[in-house]
Amino acid sequence: MQHLAPNALLALFAALALAGSVLWVLLRHQTAGLGLLLAVQIWSVAANTPALVLGIHVYLADVLAVCASCVALGRMLIHGLPQRAGLLPLLGLTVLAAWSTLSGIHTFGLQSAGNDGRLYFWYVLAAALYTATMPPGAALARSVTRVWLGTAAVLTALCLNGWMKHGLHAITERVVIDGTVTDSRPVPAAAALLLAQAAVLLLCPPFDSRSPDGGRATAVRLRRGRRLLALSLLLIVILLQHRTVWVAVAAMAVAGWALRPARPGQRILSGAFGVTALGLAALAFYVGAFGNVGGTLAASAEEARSTHSTLTWRVMGWQDLLDKPRSVVEWLIGTPFGAGYERYVNGTLVEFSPHDYYLHVGMRLGVMGLALLVAAYTLIWWRLPRDSPSSLPLRVLIVGQLVFFVAYPAFLDQGVLLGLFLWHVGADPTGRVPDPVTPGDTDISGGPRPHTVSRPVHPELQGMARHTAAVAPGPTHASGAGQ
Fold first, then answer.
1. Helices in 241-290 by DSSP H: which ranges?
2. How far apart are CA 389 and CA 463, in angstroms?
3. Residue 270 and residue 262: Cα distance in Å, rounded?
4. Is the per-residue pLDDT at 14 higher than 80?
5. Is the pTM higher than 0.85?
6. In angstroms, rounded to a whole number, what is the distance separating the alpha carbons of residues 453 and 463?
7. pLDDT tens digit string along 116-175?
8. Nearest 5°: phi and psi at 330?
9. Which residue of 80, 243, 262, 415 could cross-link 128, Cys pair, CB 3.0 to 4.6 Å?
10. Distance between CA 209 and CA 347 in Å, rounded?
11. CB within 8 A of 56, min separation 6: which ones?
12. End-to-end CA gap in the chain
């Protein structure tokens, strides 16, 4: 065993160096830190291999989740709990997840409990807490939008590469890659949702997206370019054939149509135009105007209506999971991580996650956990300013998330969005906005510098404020709690 010691020591030093580097980036460079969090989605599609092997497999997301949790915890310990709607329910979810993890380790062992809880719970909670506790004056929405669009660009390249190598197939077909039969779609549903959300951020960015020079012609070109890119992303989402994401896109489109301020009659006119466009597209599919591509999409849509569809398969699994006997305590706080998800679907034993995040949360964190999750989103929706331009895209994204969770669990990137929602509702209801943090000032404090200076309101926060010119000088906030 002695000849293994140098390798183990080297791996330990590598782990410490990696953790130290990640901590430094997450502490000092928020845009790069957000980019690292979203890079997990790219890594899972392109490689999905362990970053380190220390007796157990340590993935990139594990290192990021631990470091992000440490940063968020440090901010809260040093400067107190930020006054943001929904953060208390999120902390309640964290407490329930910790209890479920400890109980699972005691009952089923570290590996079973860790594998069950980390992907859909600890990754999401860590990303949400890290983003929600960022400095209140930081340009967070702009940073999230930039890294989100960058991640979408890489995922688009991976999609195109997959289609060029293996072709476009209906979901009822399977392709053989390196001798293994696999899904014909180049990226999973979580990546397809990320692309759809990138289209929303392009169509209605949650910050002031006017051109720096204020030129009308430049603004028109930028708006047209964003629309073209958004349509391209939505086309890729359609070709990916994740039907749940199709439904989420439709729900986001309806939400955007219903929530966008409009003059009398304009909403009805735009709704009629949208229905007409959809009808013409359906007619074009029916007559075969889209050729083989249209036939592929039609086959995928038809599969959802069959008795052997993935939806039917999921519903049967949900029924079996709900019918299992549980004690009162298990109904309240859930069964521990590692307990498994064994169920029978058409006589076949299925053991992986339920494919419904609400049921998933209810099974592991109980009715209390499900109530806390609903409370967090309810408080965010209620606290988002009605007259703020940034509220529209955030509400649309919330609708898309909640629809997606019906058939899929949350992933780390959705935790980043949840943190962005929490951060946005941290504005003071009176319209006062904290001093913006200039580049290089962001640290673990999560708050403004001690001296007081009258500064312009950051464009991204301007929609939340009632004062549109400048923030009046006032007393410095004693902590990093967002106003």
1. 243-259, 266-286
2. 6
3. 10
4. no
5. no
6. 21
7. 999 999 999 999 999 999 887 668 888 999 999 999 999 999 999 999 988 888 877 777
8. -65, -35
9. 415
10. 55
11. 111
12. 57
CB-facing half-sphere around the CA of 423: CA atoms within 13 A: 33
Taking residue 9's Cβ as centre, other Cβ atoms within 10 Å add up to 10
Quote the CA–CA distance of 395 and 414 in Å, as a whole number: 14
Structure tokens at 236: 């890729």
Q: What is the mean pLDDT of residues 84-107?
A: 90
Q: How far is CA 297 from CA 102, 158, 237, 304, in A?
A: 46, 20, 11, 11
pLDDT tens by residue, 346-393: 888 888 889 999 999 999 999 999 999 999 999 999 988 877 778 899
Residues in the chain: 483
363: amino acid identity, one letter: M
- Give phi and psi for 150, each to the nearest 5: -65, -40
Which residues, 6 or more positions from 140, have their beta carbon under 8 angstroms from its beta carbon? 30, 131, 134, 420, 423, 424, 460
The Cα 464–Cα 334 span in angstroms is 39
Contacts (Cβ under 8 Å, ≥6 apart) of 74: 444
Ranges of beta strands (E only) in 312-403 are: 343-345, 348-350
Q: Token match 């999973």: residue?
A: 188
Contacts of 186 (CB under 8 A, 6+ apart): 45, 158, 159, 161, 162, 163, 166, 240
Q: Which residues of 158-167 are buried (b: 16+ CB within 10 A; e: fewer)?
A: ebeebbeeee
Token representation of residue 429: 């209801």
